[in-house]
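Batch job 17 of 40 flagged for manual review because the log was empty.
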Amino acid sequence: MDERPASTTLTILAGLAFVFLLAPVVIVLPLSFSGDAFMAFPPQSWSARWYGAIFSHARLIDAFFVSLGLAATVTALSLAIALPATYALVRLRPPGAETMFSLFTAPLLLPTIVLGLAILIVFAGLGLLGTWRGLLLAHLVVCTPYALRVLATSLANLPADVEQAAATLGARPLTVFRRVTLPLMLPGVAATGALCFLVSFDETVLSLFMTGPRISTLPVEMYHHVENQADPMAAAISVLLVVLTLAVVVVVDRTVGLARTFVK
C-alpha cells in the first residue's frame, strides 16, 4: 500500500474534528468530580462523592445489570444470526442476494425514533412492552444489521482461493467454514461482537419505548434521573461509560487488531 504523509491542511482539519468530537468529554470529566449539589460548569468545589453515590443507587445498579445481560445476549444472538446469513449472501450468492442484504440492513437507514415507534405499535399488540423478551427482540432489530454489515465487509475481504483449495483437497463445506473461513474471520467477528455489545448497551431511544416499571436499562434510568435531579451523578456515570467503551475497543484492538477486520 502506498503510504503518503498527510498534508498540513488535512492534519489541522483532522485535529479540529477530534477536538469537536471530544469537547463533550472534556466538559463532562470535570463535572463528574464536582462537589456541588447541582451541575454547574466550572464546578465551585471538587469531590469524588458522586462516583460513590452511583453504587448506593439501587435502581441504577439494577439497570446496569439489565443492560449488561441484555447487551451480552443480543451480541451472542446477533452473531449467531448474522454469521451464517453473511456467508450465504456473500459466498453462496443466491438469487436476489443484494436485495436481501439491503432489506436486512434497512433498519440502519431509519431514524431510531421512527423505528422505536413502529416496534412499539407492533409489540403493544403482542404484550411485549416492558418485558425482557420485548427488549431483546427490539435490540436485535437494531444490532443484527450492524453485524451483517461488518461481517459482510470482513468476509468480502478474505481470499476465496483458500476456501476453494480446502474444498479441492476433499474438505466438506462445513469443515471448510469451521477450519478455514471462521479462523480468518475472527478479527471481524470480534469487532462485530464489540460493536453489537456497545450499540445495545448504549441504546436509549429504542429502550425508552420498550421499558416500563418492571424492567429498565441504564441509559433509560440515566434519562429519568436527569429529568428529576440535575446533579453531577449523570456526569460520573457518563465518564464510566466512556471508560468502558474505550476498554472494549482497546481489548479488541490489542487481541485481534481492528485494522485486520477491514484491510486485506
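Reviewer: the log was empty due to a logging misconfiguration, but the result itself is present. The mean pLDDT is 84. Unflagging and moving on to job 18.
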